[in-house]
Every structure is written in structure tokens, then in C-alpha cells.
Amino acid sequence: MSEPFSTQVSDRICSHMNEDHGDALLIYAQTFGSLTHATSAQMLSIDPEGMNLSVQVNDATVPVRIQFDRVLKDSEDAHHTLIAMVRQARSQG
Prior knowledge:
Layout: H1 7-20, H2 22-31, E1 38-47, E2 50-57, E3 60-67, H3 75-92
């Protein structure tokens, strides 16, 4: 079921991504954040325009904002967009 973005929706998406999809978060940081030397990433928040990550690069923690290519409508749109971004990054690599 689709839900509009709210703090609760952002928290739920972040929790799910951090617990189950750390590999995807790392791919976002490396590909869309241009942090090729990143070793891990956590999603801090997500909104209709982008996502905020905390990325480990060498011995530093770096904040990264990744803009989406369009404004997302709701949580379902976010789900599909995040999957498409992983596929796009993997096809480039």
C-alpha cells in the first residue's frame, strides 16, 4: 500500500534499508555519490527529492546527499526508484 512521505515512512524505509540492504546503500554511495572508495553506508533519511547517507570512506564518516532524477510521489514510488537505481548502478559496473 502506498503512503505519502512522512517522518514515519522515512524512518521505516531507512530501517529496512539499513538492516537488509547495506550492499545497495554502498552501491548508491559509490555510484551516485561518486565515493568509489566507500566501504559502507547507512541511510539517514529519505524524502521525495533524495536520500541522505552516512558513508564510511577510509577512516572518515562522510555525509552524502543523493538527489533522485525526479520528485517521488510516495513510499511505493520510493521502493521502485531504489530498486531501479541499484539495477542502473550494477549495469554500469
